[in-house]
Amino acid sequence: MTRRAEFEAFLERYLKIVQPLEHEHALAVWQMETEGTPASGERVAELGVKLDTIHANTADFAFLRGIEPSELDDPALARQWLLLHNAYLGSQMSEEVIEELNRLEVAISEAYNNYRAELHGEPVSDNVIDDLLLHSTDVADRKEAWEASKRVGEEVRERLLELVRLRNREAKRLGFSDFYELSLTLQEMDEKRLFALLEDLRKQAEPLWNDYRKRLDARLSERFGTPEESLRPWHYSNRFFQEAEPGELNLD
Predict the structure, then answer these.
(1) Residue 136 half-sphere exposure, CB side, CA atoms within 13 Å?
(2) Which parts of the chain have pLDDT scores under 70?
């Protein structure tokens, strides 16, 4: 049997197992994001462990590593080989680590999904916070709402740090400096090229940004009767400062 035939047979077996699991996992994530119940979170973690365990198979990974893409004599197959190789590479961990990673990731997602900021002592939805930041001129209320929306960080801090430590430890074991380098590698990104691109974009955007920010801060200073140097995050119209102020854009 040729190398190409061996890989095609492997790929066929793989897809029969993984495709339905991926579909089920995606639906479970949707259910967790919309319902936020413990049962939905447990289902996501369970399916995540199953998928990662498949990719942790050392014999399958050895088979993939033993193939040269040129042996496949087909660009589409070579591409599928690379995607599979990277999926297996990023999951070469023990079952205990896989279970712990999935547990932490789901717990953090659940915390964010179920968090409700408290405003005037009452839990409120993100929509209430967003509406207040969009329309209110009461700076005290705006500050309380903005700060309340950020307290979710206190709830996830320890689990997030634990996740970071575990990810970095496993990435180093796999031969990378940290999880960041591993992630870029698995996504086929070159760190130097990526940051050169971002720096070029920053330089090109900076004059436009500075002009926009100057005009925006002048308007906010007038609206709230606050010196420009005293403006704070809660003076802006959204929690993450990622959207244009109301009325600035017409996308209709």
Answers:
(1) 18
(2) 251
